[in-house]
Design goal:
elongated, 11 strands, alpha+beta
């Protein structure tokens, strides 16, 4: 004789579950596993059997005490068959079905598990009359390359996009804001993939990619540039004119004794901030260039400098 299954485990409820909790669990499982929703017929039969026992007070009492609700399998003295579960008790009296055999007979007739008049509207959106559900179209992603100057100053671009399912391509005017960042995204509502069964179209997402510049780089609204200086300029100090990305020129002071990789900041000379007001900063990184080749005078000057140096730069000695 096969062992009686654990009906509580089948419904996913504890042994202390109330009648309402048992019914709620059964409804949830029925939405997923009933045959007309594409569920497994055997699984639904197990769920129905578990509910038939646990929803009946007398059968549940027998099951809890003896592990079975079958009176032929329990000690003498227990009698009286319990009532069977009716599908209309769970699904609101749909189609007059009273038992699992009625459901199977309906399937054999080709009417579905709950008959041709069953409305699945109460079972979480399966839809009355089995009408296809409307679906929103997919979002589409397009990468738009812009130059450093176009991103810095802002520009307009014409973009042509081929949407699957449309007979012709769509051409859009895309406004790139001043200060646009690499990886920035513009969203065009309803310009993406076509919806299904009357659903709305998806969105078109355009991501900006900034082409490299020979001198400048961006980090948010800040613009970075390298400033080469000679050993003498770094040691003695210098005043140097640096071109800014907005087309103007700024004069920066390199203090005497400036070390390699020192960053000098010019406030407000960076890119416009897309969110907020004002501009970022111009970050100037000093690159001290050591000469690879020197003329006779330079070499003599360096030798004189070395002879006059008393500072010990290697502190580990």
């Amino acid at each position: 004789m096969a062992a009686t299954p654990d009906y509580y485990k089948t419904l996913g409820v504890p042994r202390t579950a109330t009648a309402d909790e048992i019914k709620k669990a059964f409804r949830k499982l029925a939405r997923t596993h009933h045959p007309d929703a594409g569920g497994d017929e055997a699984k639904f039969k197990e769920i129905n059997e578990a509910y038939e026992v646990l929803s009946d007070d007398k059968k549940r009492q027998l099951y809890d005490q003896y592990g079975t609700a079958n009176e032929n399998q329990i000690p003498h003295g227990w009698g009286g068959a319990g009532g069977s579960v009716h599908v209309e008790d769970i699904f609101g009296g749909a189609g007059g079905f009273n038992s699992w055999s009625d459901i199977l007979e309906s399937i054999r007739r080709g009417e579905g598990a709950f008959g041709s008049n069953w409305d699945f509207g109460d079972l979480g959106g399966f839809g009355g009359g089995r009408q296809p559900r409307a679906r929103k179209g997919q979002d589409m992603n397009v990468t738009l390359n812009v130059t450093f100057d176009e991103a810095f100053n802002g520009t307009e671009k014409r973009v042509t996009v081929r949407i699957p399912g449309k007979p012709e391509s769509d051409t859009l005017t895309v406004k790139i804001p001043a200060g646009a960042v690499d990886g920035g995204r513009l969203r065009f509502k309803g310009k993406g993939g076509l919806g299904e069964n009357g659903g709305e179209a998806g969105d078109l997402l355009i991501t900006t990619k900034i082409d490299p510049h020979p001198h400048y780089s961006r980090k948010g609204a800040d613009v970075h540039v390298a400033l080469p200086v000679t050993v003498a300029e770094a040691a003695l100090g210098a005043s140097i004119v640096v071109p800014a990305p907005d087309g103007t020129k700024v004069r920066v002071k390199v203090p005497a004794g400036t070390q390699d990789a020192t960053v000098l900041t010019v406030r407000g000379k960076g890119a416009p901030r897309v969110k907020g007001s004002g501009n970022g900063d111009l970050k100037i990184e000093v690159n001290v260039r050591v000469p690879k080749d020197m003329n006779e005078r330079q070499r003599q000057a360096m030798e004189d400098f070395l002879a006059a140096t008393t500072e010990d730069v290697r502190t580990w000695q």
